């Protein structure tokens, strides 16, 4: 993703000035099953899609962009990584070296975080405050399944559950919706804590059934597929869309870069 050139001192002053001291309670956005959506994390956001919600980057998106989307009747979900350190973020200096683990495979400028650390959790609460100050309707914290990989730390599944529930509770206390990202083995246990799920390639990896508890609870599953065959072969795309509709998922076929170079939706 693109680096954000934004001085840390200015970022902190901005945040302290605009974050309200009292948050809304129990009235956050709750998207419905089969909600329509657009997901773009790179490039100039294409605002022209007729969908219910947009999922865009928390740091790279301006207040003006968020307000324009909302003025056109869309809800806005703001993305940030909750399980990894990204060296280009304006608050990267807030992470302690001891809390930085191994480099993520395929992402040389990201490192796994020690999710049990109180310092890491404080950074995440400030990011949630930033989401409030920018007017986001909800958040998509990424990398919520790091217990399944070699992070350089020795935390386990229960530590991940505790961290994910911490994020959900903090988001809700601020009046923000929150989505569970790519944590299929814990989806059932966490479906009561989160308002929706976001999954990548659940059809490709045969993980879609893991999220059935969300649908049963009246909460949507937002899925994205990246296989090139779904782009090039209309019959293959129609096949995966047929499966998606049967499960009541909100499936998109997108470029892995999430840069809006193409988009196919399984919903109108």
UniProtKB/TrEMBL annotation:
Pfam families: Glyco_hydro_114 (PF03537). It comes from Marinomonas alcarazii. Residues 36-260 form the Glycoside-hydrolase family GH114 TIM-barrel domain. This is Glycosyl hydrolase family 114. Keywords: Hydrolase, Signal. GO terms for molecular function: hydrolase activity. SUPFAM superfamilies: (Trans)glycosidases. The keyword Signal applies. It comes from the Bacteria. Residues 1-24 form the signal peptide. InterPro entries: Aldolase_TIM (IPR013785), GH (IPR017853), GH114_TIM-barrel (IPR004352). PANTHER family: ALPHA-1,4 POLYGALACTOSAMINIDASE, PUTATIVE (AFU_ORTHOLOGUE AFUA_3G07890)-RELATED, ALPHA-GALACTOSIDASE.
